[in-house]
Amino acid sequence: MKKLIAAASLCVASFSVQAVITVPEYDANAGKQIAETVCAACHGVDGVSIVPAQPNLGGQNVKYLYKQLVNFKAGYRKNGIMQSQVANLSQQDLANVAGYYASQKPWGVGYGNPATAQEASKIFLGGDKKRGVIGCAGCHGPEGAGNTWAAFPRLGGQHSAYIATQLKLFRAAGRQDDIASDDQKRANDAAKEGEMGMMQTVASKLSDRDIRILSEYVSAIH
């Protein structure tokens, strides 16, 4: 419990130095029309993706979705497909799409690995003090539900393949891996320009095994 409280305190401190995310008033019906033509092939019309490499979006918190879309459009979060998809969308369009997917029924639960669930749960809930790893639950909640106010995403039930990829992208950015190209890094959680954000800090201390078992664990919690 002490580890969970400490991790939560660090998350609050990290968020407090960021600008508050304000989502414009949105039209979910207009967002649905965009989702059907632009987003559905990868993320599904209802926000449930059938492709493990692409995230489920249905029921995700609207602040997080809007921030990611804005970051893709600005090029702050790198992904060639996503950047091309949002290139012709206005800020209002982005808010509408975020609002639509957030209003959908949350996705279900994925499949975990019972053999490593206990080991992964210790890292997820309390981290690993010896290695300086902060527990995931402090920001994302013990059941992976996220934090709507702080725009921390819901993780529980998300595709393990997608979670693993994102952790590796954050890790590459956190370790300042010069070999990795910009699209092989993710740094859009930065608290201040030039400083590492929480996810980069946490992921930089994770091994490939940590990432694998955490991703499998996260996929199964709800």
From TrEMBL:
Keywords in alphabetical order: Electron transport, Heme, Iron, Metal-binding, Periplasm, Signal, Transport
Ranges where the Cytochrome c domain occurs: 26-105, 115-222
Signal peptide (residue range): 1-19
Location of this chain's protein in the cell: Periplasm
InterPro entries, per the entry: Cyt_c-like_dom, Cyt_c-like_dom_sf, Cytochrome_c4-like, Cytochrome_c_Oxidase_Subunit
Residues annotated as binding heme c 1: C39, C42, H43, M82
Modification after translation: Binds 2 heme c groups covalently per subunit.
Pfam families named in the record: Cytochrom_C (PF00034)
Main localization category: periplasm
Name of the protein: Cytochrome C
